[in-house]
Task: inverse folding
């Protein structure tokens, strides 16, 4: 459902004329992005005092969404986005106080989120090709719980660091290639009430964005 809704928003933004004041439109750009992600979180995903998963992140995940840039001054931009992010991994359930008849079998663990990063972005080397760096907060809204008793919080705060290169195809269209690092700050799981289970979700992404001036 979330995927279908985002696709509909993409179509709406790029097929419907946007009516804005001319001085504002010169400062605003919208974008559509897609990224491949590598989960680099800790191998022990503890969501309780004695329980959790031993994680295998040997797979690529993805992220896609919409972005909105607003020019503040010079080459300084404030950037907001809304993304759907897939963080699936393979996990082996553990319980430190349980006696298992047979070893746990690795299973696919589904974890998806809506991400709303808000960052400051600065562009270097003004011209047809320019570089950029960005830093800011990332608001995470988990869409599902893990198996067993792993109940996720409805809201998690994190941060984003990124850099990349932009190529201006025309005076209104540009392509961006970026590398970014995301990390959660607050707790993912409600039951992680002690330090050892404060699991942080971390990922590195390689993305492509199409940006359009409105």
Result:
């Amino acid at each position: 459902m979330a995927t279908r809704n985002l696709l509909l928003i993409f179509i709406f933004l790029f097929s419907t004329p946007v009516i804005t004041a001319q001085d504002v439109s010169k400062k605003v750009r919208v974008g559509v992005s897609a990224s491949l992600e590598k989960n680099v979180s800790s191998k022990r995903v503890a969501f309780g005092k004695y329980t959790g998963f031993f994680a295998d992140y040997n797979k690529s995940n993805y992220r896609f969404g919409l972005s909105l840039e607003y020019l503040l001054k010079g080459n300084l931009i404030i950037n907001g986005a809304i993304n759907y992010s897939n963080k699936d991994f393979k996990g082996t359930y553990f319980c430190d106080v349980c006696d298992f008849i047979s070893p746990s079998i690795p299973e696919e663990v589904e974890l998806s989120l809506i991400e709303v990063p808000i960052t400051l972005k600065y562009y270097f080397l003004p011209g047809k090709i320019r570089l950029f760096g960005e830093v800011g907060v990332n608001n995470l809204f988990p869409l599902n719980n893990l198996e067993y008793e792993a109940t996720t919080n409805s809201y998690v705060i994190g941060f984003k660091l990124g850099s990349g290169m932009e190529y201006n195809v025309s005076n209104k269209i540009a392509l961006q290639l970026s590398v970014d690092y995301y990390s959660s700050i607050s707790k993912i799981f409600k039951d992680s009430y002690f330090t050892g289970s404060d699991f942080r979700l971390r990922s590195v992404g390689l993305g492509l964005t199409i940006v359009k001036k409105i």
In short: The mean pLDDT is 84.
